[in-house]
Structure formats: C-alpha cells, structure tokens
Amino acid sequence: MELNVHHFSVSLGKADIVRDISLHVGEKRFVGLLGPNGCGKSTLLKSIYKVIKPNSGQAYLDGTDLVKSSPKTVAQLMSVVGQFNELSFDFTVREMVLLGRTPHKKLLDPDNAEDYRIVDDALRQVDLTAYADRSYLSLSGGEKQRVILARALAQQPQFLILDEPTNHLDVKYQLQILNIVKSLNTGVLAALHDLALAAKYCDYLYMVKKGKIVAEGVPHDVLTKETIAEVFEVECEIYDNPVTGGLGIAYLTAK
Ligand SMILES: Nc1ncnc2c1ncn2[C@@H]1O[C@H](COP(=O)(O)OP(=O)(O)OP(=O)(O)O)[C@@H](O)[C@H]1O
User: Fold this and answer.
1) For the domain 3-254, what is the CATH code?
2) How far apart are CA 226 and CA 234, in angstroms?
3) Which residues on adjacent β-strands are paired with residue 19?
4) Which of 42, 164, 189 is the best mutation target for the ligand 1 pocket, counting ligand atoms within 8 Å of the beta carbon and taking the most?
5) Which is the closest atom of ligand 1 to the Cα of 164?
6) What pTM value is reported for the model?
C-alpha cells in the first residue's frame, strides 16, 4: 500500500507545529522522518493516524481517505508503534498483544484459536514467548516496546507507522526490531533519532525542521554534513564505514 500525504498543516494551541508537509511512502518502502526534538515529527504522525486532526490537507493509504475514514477502518490497514506506552491498569503480555486483533473483530466477538495463533507468532518474532503471562506493567521499557511491536504485528497491518520504535532498546533489540519491520514487506513511515540506523534501514528520508520538510531523498543525499549542521546544529563528518560499507557519521561538536 502507498501512503500519500498532501499539504498537511497542524496547529496545537496557537502554535503552527506542522506546516504544509507533503510526503509519499511507496509500496513496501521504508521511509524515515528525521529532525530535532520538537520539530513536529510525532505531531505529523499522530495526525496521519488520526489522534490529532489536521487543520488542512489530505492523506490517503491507497484509495482510503485517512482523514475521513473511521478509526476502525484505518486500524484494519495500519498499525502504530507510538512513543509512550504507559497504561494505568494492568494486562498480561498476551492480553496486550491480543488487543491487536480488535480492529478485525465485531463488538463482543470472542478471541478464537486463529487469534491466539497469530498472537503466539507475534510474541515469538519479538523474542517474548516466555513473557506471555507476565504483567505488562512489570516489564522494562525495552520489553514494553517489544510487546507494543508484537501488538502491531498481531494487527497484520498493510502499513506501519513507528514513532521512535527503538527508544529504550539495547543494541541487539534495536537491530532486531528494525530487521523485523524491514522483513514485513509493508510500507513503513518511521520517526527515527539515530541517523546511522536511518541510513542503514531507510530507502528514503524526509528531514523536518520547525514543522517543514527541508530536505528529502535517499540517505546518502540527505545525510550530508551541511544538512546535519543546518537541521541539528551539530558539526560532523560523513564517511564510508569500512566495516559495514554503509554510511558512517562522526559527530564532532554541537554548534
Ligand atoms: N497541546 C500543545 N500546545 C502547544 N504546543 C504543543 C502541544 N503539544 C505539543 N506541542 C509542541 O509541539 C512541538 C512538536 O512536538 P512533537 O512531539 O511533534 O515533536 P517531535 O519532533 O516528535 O519531538 P521529539 O523528537 O522530541 O519526540 C513541540 O515543541 C511541543 O512542545
């Protein structure tokens, strides 16, 4: 499925947070949204997945109008791994992941054997089979993040939105989660902070500053020392990593 966002603008209170952003995620593409703290990445993502209403603009997932469709219709197509995953009451890990099945059910439909099979499969993918009966609230931040990804997988999405999905994760699980996401073969739009990981996993990048897109393109074209200096106010050198063959970033000083 393709995501097309046309001229989205979002204000919160009196502040214009997202200012006329258009973007495109092609079929099965992994697209990264980069930018400094507070530049509007989460607000843009939330307005695409319907937590915030944009002031203006359209968003389509193939032919589905995301602004006008019901949350349930959107949730049948799209999973979200958000930034904050706290609950005020407790569920087991299995119950949390079962929630991913909700958009595919009618009210009061019981969970069936197929749902449990899908949930077990999702838990296995994120390495949490042994945690199925644990209380969600007792988990570490990184374990919670993996449960939320399992819930997103159980939703069997055709498109994924990720807001800093590697927050809280140690290096093994950062790589594991991005590898899982990449292997799903769905379109992905992900806000990421780690520029080297973005270079490794993303097919295309949008760089956001103060609510506007200031650069876009393939990682090698966007992640230049000039763009990083302008957007993040950090001096760096870009190099070809001799070990991985990928793009390396040596950060020098904050400007
Ligand atoms: N209700 C609100 N009223 C006014 N400003 C708000 C409101 N909610 C959020 N903001 C501001 O909107 C801006 C964008 O926030 P957003 O969470 O979208 O940034 P972000 O790029 O995702 O940042 P981070 O990388 O820190 O997660 C921030 O400056 C934030 O303080």
Assistant:
1) 3.40.50.300
2) 10
3) none
4) 42
5) 27
6) 0.94
